[in-house]
Amino acid sequence: MRFTTFTALAIVLASMAVAAPAPSAMRVKESVTMPSGWVRRGPVAAGTEIPLSIALKQRAFADLESEILAVSDPKSPRYGKFLSREQVSSYLTPSAESAAAVRRWLEEHSVKEDLSRRSFAGDWVRATVPVERASAMLGGAEFAEFLNERTGEVVVRALEYSVPESVFDHVDLVGPTTYFGKPLAHRAPSRIAEWLPVGYKPHADETVVHADNRLAVNVAAAVPPPACTTTNQTTLTCIRQLYGTIDYKVQKPNSQFIGISGFLEEYPNDKDFNQFLSTERPDALAANYKYRLTQIDGGGNNQSKPGVEANLDVQTVAAISFNIPSTYYSNGGRPPFNPDQATPTNTNEPYTTEFEYLLSQQTIPSVVSTSYGDDEQTVPRDYAVRVCGEIAGLAARGVSMVFSSGDNGVGSDGNCVSNDGKKTRKFLPAFPASCPYSITVGGTEAYAPEVAVSSKIGGFFAGGGFSEYFARPAYQDNAVKGYLKTLGKKHAGLFNPNGRAYPDIAAQASRYLIVVGGRYVRVGGTSASGPTIASIIALLNDARAAVGRPNLGWINPLLYYGQPEQVLTDITSGSSAGCDTDGFPAAKGWDPVTGFGTPNFKKLLAAATA
Ligand SMILES: *[C@@H]1O[C@H](CO)[C@@H](O)[C@H](O)[C@H]1NC(C)=O
Ligand SMILES: *[C@@H]1O[C@H](CO)[C@@H](O)[C@H](O)[C@H]1NC(C)=O
Fold this sequence. Notes:
single chain, alpha/beta, 2 domains, 8-stranded mixed beta sheet, 20% strand, globular, binds 2-acetamido-2-deoxy-beta-D-glucopyranose
């Protein structure tokens, strides 16, 4: 006993003799195995600048979540009383203690924060530091160049990093470090890279064109027919007839605007837009209707490079929601990466750039349509949680955050294993589709009856499934438990029955006839159904504005606690085939293929303005 006591005393004395406080011990924050498809290419050139994003713990995120329900649940007395920018920020701002701990950590390493890139709430702090210093800050993290063998994309990442004990509990994550998501090419954050799903077989009357080495487009045989008479091509006029918006006249065009997310150097083309309007919305062309374009974080606007996704999004939104203004957000984030030059590589972190920008603005869209997504497991959990938190923040402000559900059913065939090194066979849910605050949109095809999109017409199966990161929110309990009961033991073990289930709603996702590069082309994907739903929500907002009602915002409580069968057409046939299985079957009521179904605008309108 004595001996021990003496020893302890000796240690105390020894440490008192040191002038500076002992450096805090390091603790592993995250450790991942290399996702399949990537190889370590080699070391990072000395002096390479690494842009670090540090996510500080938010002060009161759980309280923000109750606020979202309070303003989005129609039964709540505060329904529609959305939060201001400052109110949302007050929940997200880190505590003074967290801010100080991170400040000290940066100072210890002589790292200067890039104040211009701090988020509005101060919950993201950024700095660009040479790789040697980044490694020292992160407990000797071994940064290296990693190559995606399929796309040729090169990123600088580390498979493990640590932070000092003194900041461990104050920081959610340091990015991009372990983020191997596939935002650049491969499949995400958009479905563009594999616009047509893996193994897509063109129909007899189709030609597949590869543009930009990444895109595949169906070239339409003819100019648009007037309506939905065949399944050969889905004109926007047909969509407007099918869902019943065609006679609706916008009443308060300046009371809101629609936001459209753009990543991956996807730019909408002005000439294509006008050509499209000439056949689908001549009234909009006559009114000189345009979309606006906002460039975020170095996002471009190259009119010589029309993007299929970008054109699909702006054209769909314009055709359905004219003359509600729309804004295309062109996000930067993919400068050519030259690993030999000592200039900053991009963080390659999609979503947060745009969502942080929106959270920092006083005036924001009423609806944001995002047709991009990753396999959830390729997005580190901590990062997904933060992005979902930003979606939540925007939901609290009354924005309907609409996301496509994905184009590979429950996961792309031949690819359905866990990336934790164990290669467990499982379905692959998509993110941000899986965020509980997303309004997630599945896909349909055909007209009488409308069925879940499939290989028959659309050439793909819409994404659907259950999150492995996000628990099932209470609002889904009844709907999802009912479905699971019907499902029985089918696919047991391949998915997380307790996870946030998606999609919530659906729309046509096949053979949209749009204009790209001066030609009419047919494009399919939940990238098409997403903007369709976003536009219809905006039309409902318009009708509500005309009778003095607030925007619909995050509609999930309305859907799940309400009577969706009275305002949506339940889609009961088809499935979300994938992972070499027949996937989840569509069913009566909610299902993880088409959600509650597709819009019946006349009925929605009556309900939204009742
Ligand atoms: C529509 O598709 C069917 C079957 O693929 C084909 O026989 C028909 O010629 C097409 N019609 C038009 C107008 O392209
Ligand atoms: C715009 O896109 C065209 C076609 O891809 C390309 O040749 C040109 O270099 C691009 N311009 C800029 C400024 O990036």
